[in-house]
């Protein structure tokens, strides 16, 4: 019988920590933009968004717990080389190449820039020095992440965000207009694809190790118990995210008659905050954005440091986190636009493969964990996702686009689904036939 000091209070605090880690600035920006474009179709659109923006991250946390709390273990089911390269690609994309620098860039552009008469390289430099120094200090002792974020930063974030949200719901006088773009024909699937850009399913594969490590520190080591508690943590974090996404999407859908169509969700949030609450609203928004960026930055730095320490045992945690913090600081000062252009193709390549790995891990028992199923499914998804990434990067765009549109569902952004299913079935059949033949021989 396992002895543990673990309690429901620990689950609640870790769940709140996960909510704060997931709720980066990007998560606050996408739903209002979706609401504006979806208009009267906001509810089917946000439903699709919730599946990929909330459902997949929760499933990813469970998958990591079920595998033993390690993305490498999940990836190695495809093969040794893939088990080394895919986690590295995920950690680089969600970490120093995009995820961590974006927290600093967005925190500056929305949390600080509106107060400056004229922004520039110097003000960005000063802000990111303070921002990443604080991020490094908070992540330096990962065992303190739970009390620092779960007990302190998350309640502040929830209170401030609730004030903004309820003020908008009860005071806005705007009305939703007709949907625009692909939201006219495919509101659900457009929202489904928009949920990718939160990066939370990938982030959950990274943050999962933080959750499992914190649980183990509290004496919880049984695999089944870890999976059960991870599910509860995911529900707590997911419930918070659903509240935020539904509220912000609704506010976005009613904002057009007040603000007109805006280029991004950050401008929408800024305009709504000023419209609803004047200067106080802008201060509240700046507080939310800064805290959201900070908590995400801390979580990503800590996760990357633990990954490096585990993979390259000679590198101490403090050194790994220091290097990734300094590198992210440099990248953040390149500018947000350049970061997105550089990293988006990699994210497009990674995301479908990550989804496939999450689903296969959850249903591993159904096909008895056969490696061929993993290889076939991942290869099928990768065939399309790599072509999609190349097209996004403008590399061989005609050939890449032609490959994507060879498959069904390309028009709604999930052309990788059918090849992945076919690959998994083919792998299962191949292994079954080969194993049977070998047994008879």
Give the CATH superfamily of the largest domain: Hydantoin permease
Gross CATH architecture of the largest domain: Orthogonal Bundle
Largest pleated sheet: none
CATH class of the largest domain: Mainly Alpha
> Count of DSSP E strands?
0
Radius of gyration: 22 Å
Rounded average pLDDT: 84
Strand residue percentage: under 5%
What is this entry, summarized?
It is a multi-pass membrane protein. The protein has 441 residues and is mainly alpha-helical. The protein has helices spanning 8-22, 25-38, 42-67, 71-75, 80-94, 99-111, 121-139, 145-171, 187-194, 200-217, 223-253, 256-259, 265-311, 317-332, 336-362, 371-393, 397-404, 417-440.
What does this structure look like?
By secondary structure, the protein is an all-alpha fold. The protein has two domains: 8-336, Hydantoin permease (Orthogonal Bundle); 363-441, no CATH class. Helix content is 77%, strand content 0%. It has 18 helices and no strands. The chain is globular, with a radius of gyration of 22 Å. The N and C termini lie far apart (45 Å).
């Amino acid at each position: 019988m396992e002895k543990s000091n673990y309690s429901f209070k620990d689950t609640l605090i870790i769940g709140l920590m996960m909510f704060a880690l997931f709720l980066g600035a990007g998560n606050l920006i996408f739903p209002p933009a979706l609401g504006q474009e979806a208009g009267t179709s906001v509810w089917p659109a946000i439903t699709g968004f919730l599946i990929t923006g909330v459902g997949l991250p929760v499933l990813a946390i469970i998958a990591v717990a079920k595998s033993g709390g390690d993305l490498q273990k999940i990836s190695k089911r495809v093969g040794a080389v893939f088990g080394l390269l895919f986690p590295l690609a995920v950690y680089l994309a969600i970490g120093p190449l995009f995820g961590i620098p974006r927290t600093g860039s967005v925190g500056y552009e929305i949390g600080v820039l509106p107060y400056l008469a004229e922004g520039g390289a110097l003000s960005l430099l000063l802000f990111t020095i303070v921002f990443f120094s604080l991020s490094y200090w908070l992540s330096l002792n990962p065992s303190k992440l739970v009390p620092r974020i779960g007990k302190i930063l998350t309640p502040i974030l929830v209170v401030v965000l609730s004030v903004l949200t309820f003020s908008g719901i009860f005071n806005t006088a705007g009305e939703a207009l007709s949907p625009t773009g692909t939201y006219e024909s495919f509101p659900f699937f457009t929202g489904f694809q928009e949920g990718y850009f939160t990066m939370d399913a990938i982030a959950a594969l990274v943050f999962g190790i933080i959750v499992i490590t914190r649980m183990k520190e509290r004496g919880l080591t049984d695999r089944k118990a870890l999976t059960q508690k991870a599910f509860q943590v995911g529900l707590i974090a997911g419930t918070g995210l659903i509240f935020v996404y539904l509220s912000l999407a609704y506010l976005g859908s009613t904002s057009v008659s007040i603000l007109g169509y805006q280029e991004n969700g950050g401008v929408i949030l800024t305009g709504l905050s000023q419209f609803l609450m004047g200067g106080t609203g802008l201060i509240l928004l700046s507080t939310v954005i800064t805290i959201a960026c900070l908590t995400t930055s801390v979580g990503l730095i800590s996760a990357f440091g633990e990954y490096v320490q585990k993979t390259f045992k000679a590198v101490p945690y403090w050194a790994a986190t220091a290097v990734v913090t300094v590198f992210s600081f440099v990248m953040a000062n390149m500018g947000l636009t350049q970061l997105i252009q550089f990293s988006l193709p990699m994210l497009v390549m990674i995301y479908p493969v990550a989804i496939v790995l999450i689903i296969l891990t959850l249903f591993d028992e159904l096909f008895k964990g056969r490696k061929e199923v993993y290889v076939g499914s991942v290869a099928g998804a990768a065939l399309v996702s790599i072509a999609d990434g190349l097209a996004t990067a403008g590399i061989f765009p005609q050939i890449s686009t032609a490959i994507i549109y060879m498959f069904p569902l390309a028009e709604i952004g999930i052309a990788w689904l059918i090849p992945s299913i076919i690959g998994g079935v083919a792998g299962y059949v191949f292994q079954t036939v080969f194993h049977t033949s070998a047994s008879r021989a």
